[in-house]
């Protein structure tokens, strides 16, 4: 089995792709993979370091002024020729696109050569690349009902994000042990992605001050770039734990009482797989505001609360945290509802669809 996997631009596209490839490798050690991405983004560095073969396409997103957009379209057209060359050399049995502009090039080229194709949509709103590919591919995998309703029913399956499976591979620890928190204390974890958020850090100083006499503990990840500034700005009681970064998110998600976080696709896939109660603050700085749509999927299923960043202040945040921490029944129901949305067998199920697709030829 030879598979080309394309995921470009962001970790939200790349890490689900890597999770699926790792799983397939564990099931079929003879499987061969070639990743296709950009020449200069995250995947161009991460994938080779993990030991997978990699080809970069010189492509750019359709952003910027009109002249820049025209230049980027010309780059894309040129990348189709490069993609055809890659297909001729590697001779894949299947091409899978996980989003990002390199996916459009390699998947379109494969479709024209009648090579079986599949795309994966991580968000509830369909990305531009996958919109381009909808009518060209043989099969579509999505993670949310909203996306399922936008894709052609006859070739789309709601199987989830491979990262939902990946979190179960870890030897999960307990947040109390990792951060020396007494075992009899409840824990709130607040994390705004690996980089953190300067905007939210400002709100957090006063919010944490209001919660430093509570009986529960709070673990707040500032983001590495903001850690020293945050430590200088305020000192807190012993129930407040300030860290730059959380290395073992699956363990923290599994063993904390509630999570306050952004609403990226990978984060929500992990949270629902593990059954985390959450307060979501979607990033407003993403394409098509997809994080808010992702968050609404959980809110509508009573699996999360949401605060829009424009409405965020210390009182609103403290009020919602207190609501959940002081209502065990509400919090446990939220965990149960989140877990019901989870797709912990996503990798196994997607791999099953890949084998069916290849059998059909």
Automatic annotation (TrEMBL):
Domain of life: Bacteria
GO molecular function per UniProt: UDP-N-acetyl-D-glucosamine:N-acetylmuramoyl-L-alanyl-D-glutamyl-meso-2,6-diaminopimelyl-D-alanyl-D-alanine-diphosphoundecaprenol 4-beta-N-acetylglucosaminlytransferase activity; undecaprenyldiphospho-muramoylpentapeptide beta-N-acetylglucosaminyltransferase activity
Catalytic activity: di-trans,octa-cis-undecaprenyl diphospho-N-acetyl-alpha-D-muramoyl-L-alanyl-D-glutamyl-meso-2,6-diaminopimeloyl-D-alanyl-D-alanine + UDP-N-acetyl-alpha-D-glucosamine = di-trans,octa-cis-undecaprenyl diphospho-[N-acetyl-alpha-D-glucosaminyl-(1->4)]-N-acetyl-alpha-D-muramoyl-L-alanyl-D-glutamyl-meso-2,6-diaminopimeloyl-D-alanyl-D-alanine + UDP + H(+)
GO CC, any one term: plasma membrane
Keywords annotated in UniProt: Cell cycle, Cell division, Cell membrane, Cell shape, Cell wall biogenesis/degradation, Glycosyltransferase, Membrane, Peptidoglycan synthesis, Transferase
Example of a GO biological process term: cell wall organization
Primary localisation category: membrane
Cell wall biogenesis/degradation listed as a keyword: yes
InterPro entries named in the record: GlcNAc_MurG, Glyco_trans_28_C, GlycoTrans_28_N
Compartment(s) of residence: Cell membrane
Bilayer topology annotation: Peripheral membrane protein
Domain Glycosyl transferase family 28 C-terminal per the UniProt entry, residue ranges: 187-348
Functional pathway: Cell wall biogenesis; peptidoglycan biosynthesis
SUPFAM superfamilies noted in UniProt: UDP-Glycosyltransferase/glycogen phosphorylase
Purpose: Cell wall formation. Catalyzes the transfer of a GlcNAc subunit on undecaprenyl-pyrophosphoryl-MurNAc-pentapeptide (lipid intermediate I) to form undecaprenyl-pyrophosphoryl-MurNAc-(pentapeptide)GlcNAc (lipid intermediate II).
PANTHER family assigned: GLYCOSYLTRANSFERASE (PTHR21015:SF22), UDP-N-ACETYLGLUCOSAMINE--N-ACETYLMURAMYL-(PENTAPEPTIDE) PYROPHOSPHORYL-UNDECAPRENOL N-ACETYLGLUCOSAMINE TRANSFERASE 1 (PTHR21015)
Name used for this protein in its record: UDP-N-acetylglucosamine--N-acetylmuramyl-(pentapeptide) pyrophosphoryl-undecaprenol N-acetylglucosamine transferase
Lineage: Bacteria, Bacillati, Bacillota, Erysipelotrichia, Erysipelotrichales
């Amino acid at each position: 089995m030879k598979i080309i996997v394309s995921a470009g631009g962001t970790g939200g596209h790349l890490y689900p792709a890597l999770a699926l490839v790792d799983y397939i490798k564990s099931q079929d050690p003879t499987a061969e993979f070639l990743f296709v991405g950009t020449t200069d983004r995250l995947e161009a560095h991460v994938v080779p370091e993990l030991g997978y073969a990699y080809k970069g396409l010189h492509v750019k997103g359709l952003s910027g002024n009109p002249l820049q957009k025209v230049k980027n379209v010309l780059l894309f057209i040129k990348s189709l020729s490069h993609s055809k060359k890659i297909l001729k050399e590697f001779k894949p049995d299947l091409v899978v696109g996980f989003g990002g502009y390199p996916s459009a090039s390699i998947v379109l080229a494969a479709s024209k050569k009648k090579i079986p194709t599949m795309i994966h949509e991580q968000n509830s709103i369909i990305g531009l690349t996958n919109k381009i590919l909808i009518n060209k591919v043989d099969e579509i995998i999505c993670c949310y009902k909203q996306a399922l309703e936008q894709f052609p029913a006859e070739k789309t399956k709601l199987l989830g994000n491979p990262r939902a499976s990946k979190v179960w591979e870890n030897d999960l620890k307990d947040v109390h042990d990792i951060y020396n928190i007494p075992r009899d204390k409840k824990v709130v974890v607040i994390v705004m992605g690996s980089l953190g958020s300067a905007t939210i850090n400002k709100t957090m100083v006063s919010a944490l001050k209001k919660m430093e006499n509570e009986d529960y503990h709070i673990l707040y990840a500032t983001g590495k770039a903001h850690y020293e500034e945050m430590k200088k700005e305020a000192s807190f009681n012993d129930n407040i734990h300030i860290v730059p970064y959380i290395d073992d998110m699956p363990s923290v998600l599994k063993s904390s009482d509630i999570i306050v976080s952004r609403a990226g696709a990978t984060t929500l896939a992990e949270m629902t797989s593990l059954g985390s109660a959450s307060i979501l603050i979607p990033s407003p700085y993403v394409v098509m505001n997809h994080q808010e749509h992702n968050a609404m999927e959980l809110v509508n299923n009573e699996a999360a609360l949401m605060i829009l960043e424009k409405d965020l202040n210390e009182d609103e945040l403290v009020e919602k945290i207190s609501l959940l921490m002081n209502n065990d029944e509400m919090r446990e129901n939220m965990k149960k509802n989140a877990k019901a949305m989870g797709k912990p067998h996503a990798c196994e199920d997607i791999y099953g669809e890949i084998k069916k697709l290849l059998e059909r030829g």
